[in-house]
Amino acid sequence: xxxxxxxxxxLTLASVTTLxxxxxxxxxxxxxxxxxxxxxxxxxxxDPEEIVTATEPLEQLxxxxxxxxxYEVGSVDISVGTSYEAVGEGLSAGTIDIxxxxxxxxxxxxxxxxxxxxxTRAGLSNDSDDPADWNANEPTEATDEQVTYYxxxxxxxxxxxxxxxxDKVNNGEELSFxxxxxxxWSVMSPSSSAGYIYPTIWLQDNFQQNLxxxxxxxxxxxxxxxxxxLASGQVDILTVFADGRRDYVDQWQSELGGENDIWTDxxxxxxxxxxxxxxxxxxxxxxxxxxxxxSALQEAFINIxxxxxxxxxIAIYAHEGYEVAESADYxxxxxxxxxxxxxxx
Length: 345
Hints:
With 345 residues, the protein is an alpha/beta fold. The protein contains 15 helices and 14 strands. Helices cover 43% and strands 22% of the residues. The strands form three sheets. Strands 1, 2, 3, 4, 5, 13 and 14 form a seven-stranded mixed sheet that branches. A five-stranded mixed sheet has the order 9-8-10-7-11. Strands 6-12 form a two-stranded antiparallel sheet. β8, α9 and β9 form a beta-alpha-beta unit. The chain is elongated.
């Protein structure tokens, strides 16, 4: 009988210990903070129903992660804004606690919102500010390293002028604005980060000029058409995201008319500053938000992104992971937004 009593007591103690380990916060002695509801707003960069379906499991994952960090959250409300601006305005007003928003949206609403995380993506084998380094290390390939930004590049094609400018860069000579102005350019629409805005920032930083100051510029309706013009010699330079050539390796010769492979026929002549990836931002005017909760959210989202289920959720935005961010990371984006404002006036 005594043996049975000891066995029962041991089982009871084990059950209490297990329950305590689940109920207690991760840090010994830490008090649990109660939050009735956290709201998350997603921008409508994809079909809203698709976003809602993909992110539905995030509710329980976030509740579980925050529980280990000392926060007992009753529910998580997930919604998709009617526009990017609607999510930014919700963060500023405090009606949305957390927003998955691009860098451009964040800097427009950074008076009421704070960036806490930057999304990451696979990096590239080239990431130098010096275009000659890109040309010496071709082809550009994806790597396993996660990065928080991408770049735009200016590519010279196989035309006589394109080869002239590429040769100068590869010989270590500095290009002048006169060199660039003597070439024919293909750019994207003025709202394109990689195809227009950041190349404009590159011109401003290096030559105190804008794309609009160049004499021979045509706007393409797609990168495919831009590369077709480059291959045929209709233009000498195009603007594109850093791994843009990788998308047209096969088509360059078979469809676009390139004489050699794309890496032989083209060279990089300019590299922009980094274009920072999408953000997870929080409201500075939410009653729920505190510095401690911001830190907990950073840890929670990073942990979630490292799980298989979490990776499936954030893939809806082509996110692969997250790193802690700060406002200064998006200073170049603020410069980009200023360019957009000038264009609209």
